[in-house]
Amino acid sequence: MPSLFAPSAPFVFGGRPFTPDEVIEGLAPFVGAERQARIAAVVAARTTSVVPVLERVHDLGNVNAALRSAEGLGVGAAHLVELQGEAAEWAAALSEETPIEDGAPVAGGTGRARRQSQGADKWLDLHLWPDATSACDGLRAAGYRIAAMHLAADAVPIAELDFTVPTALAFGNERDGVSEALLARADLNVLLPLDGFVQSYNVSVAAALGLYHVRQDRIARQGFHGDLSAEARARLTARYYVHSVKAAAPILARLAGERSA
């Protein structure tokens, strides 16, 4: 699965591999107690069992608003499929500016994009797909059912779905919605509540409403939302420590040198 942040890649600093626990131990003196507690709480609430899929979205503001909602609601990953226009340019720039340097993912993107998302892209695993076919094949291989947010005769109200089942929730672009290619590969169509005259919500609003419902449904059914494994929580904590310390790479490289001496 193409990821900007390669979450399974090893942590390497100063030419030496680090375990997540070693990264955390090495950076802990530089992360305040309040920040450590915040990171622990965020990681405990994280899930990748349900992920948003943004397909062919054009408006960069919509992409970043959706990412901001996803991150705030405890979702740990998002999938971006065949983005268009300025959103595609942003994704390309983000990919180019997000090298895995010494095991430390460095988020890129323009200042405007970062303001719109409140830096959400920095805290999410972002996956880029060239088209709906590869995205659906990859997501299904990873164990997700694919639910398209689409107004259709056979659409299921979102309240009827069990989101303890791994689900990729797909949202289409501003003008045409979810593509025919994705609809043909989706397992089902899903509806948000619509009690007014409008037939759809703005894509970023739909993502926020849908993911809020997902969170509430998962908590109601199983008593919790976050469900990362212990290994995944450790890796994510280490990554967040790296993001929280500006000089993380040189600090850990120095430790690597000291341990090799």
Describe this structure in words.
The chain is built from 11 helices and 11 strands. The chain is α/β, with parallel strands linked by helices and 261 residues long. Strand 5 (100-101) and strand 6 (104-105) form a beta hairpin. It starts with 10 loop residues before the first strand and ends with a helix. Residues 98-118 have low confidence and may be disordered.
Observed structural traits:
single chain, 261 residues, two-stranded antiparallel sheet, 11 strands
**What distance lies between the first and last C-alpha atoms, to the nearest angstrom?**
38 Å
- Work out the radius of gyration: 19 Å
Q: Decide which structural class fits the backbone.
A: alpha/beta
Spans of at least 5 consecutive residues with low confidence: 98-118
> Helix and strand succession?
EEHHEHEHEEHHEHEEEHEHHH
Helix content: 40-55%
Number of helices: 11
Oligomer status: single chain
Task: Provide the residue-averaged pLDDT.
Answer: 88
Trace the largest sheet across and list its strands. Answer: 7-4-3-10-8-11-9
Largest sheet: 7 strands, parallel
Q: Topology, pairings included?
A:
Layout (H helix, E strand, L loop, with lengths): L10 E3 L2 E3 L1 H8 L5 H12 L5 E6 L4 H13 L4 E5 L3 H12 L3 E2 L2 E2 L5 H7 L2 H4 L1 E5 L2 H10 L3 E5 L6 E2 L9 E5 L8 H6 L2 E4 L11 H20 L7 H15 L3 H13 L1
Parallel strand pairs: 3-4, 3-10, 4-7, 8-10, 8-11, 9-11
Antiparallel strand pairs: 1-2, 5-6
Helix pairs in contact: 1-10, 2-10, 3-5, 3-9
